[in-house]
Predict the 3D structure of the following.
Amino acid sequence: MQTVSAYSPYGWKAKIGLIIPSTNTVNEPEFWRMAPEGVTIHTARLHFRPKEVEDPLLDMEAHLPRAYAELAGAEVDLIAFSCTASTMHRPPEVWEQEIRAATGLPSVTVAGAVLEAIHKLGARTIAFGTPYPEKVNEHEKAFFEGRGIRVAKHANIILSPEQQRLRHMSRVPPEAVFRLAQAIDTPEADLVFLSCTDMASLPMIDRIEQALGKPCITSSQVTFWQALRRAGLKDRLEGCGRLFRDH
């Protein structure tokens, strides 16, 4: 290997390419909060038009080829497609094949990362909470059940009518996320999952685990965890839940 090809002044451990909806203002800060020294985040945004089009997720995915090209041009080490609802449209394996074909790079998705985290934590039955409208929750429930994961309970938290159009999820405060976790918890659930990379959940993971006595995973947390592990990094991060401490 030529020395210059291995050189990166900041991302000397790994450069992670991140794909998010243009309206998402939470995922990047949470990735940066978790990033160990030597890991950098490089973002491509997908134009998300929930007020203008009938199916904003499908419309947004039309911009994926541009995002793939941008991140391939940045010479990142792998790509994280970080939109929970979109990545549950298709099997994680299909997304990974598509991204590899377009960029030549390995990838992770929220959906694939959630499944791996559930497996690593030994869970068979989960409870999940979201800031999404009910129809998105039902699709998410079907995704899990299609993978053999039982959903004991699920609920959403809607603090703004804009959330019905998949906007303003970022305005749900972490304190409300804590209460959401309490509301969805049930003795049957082996873990709780807080779904949506645009819902600020990272500050509450440890507190929720302490309060409920079981693992708590979130969309941004599991995606970053899987990205680090796929990059060959074994960093154990404090303040990011049992998943990062034990796996």
Remarks:
- The beta strands are 14-21, 39-46, 78-81, 107-109, 125-130, 150-156, 191-194, 216-218.
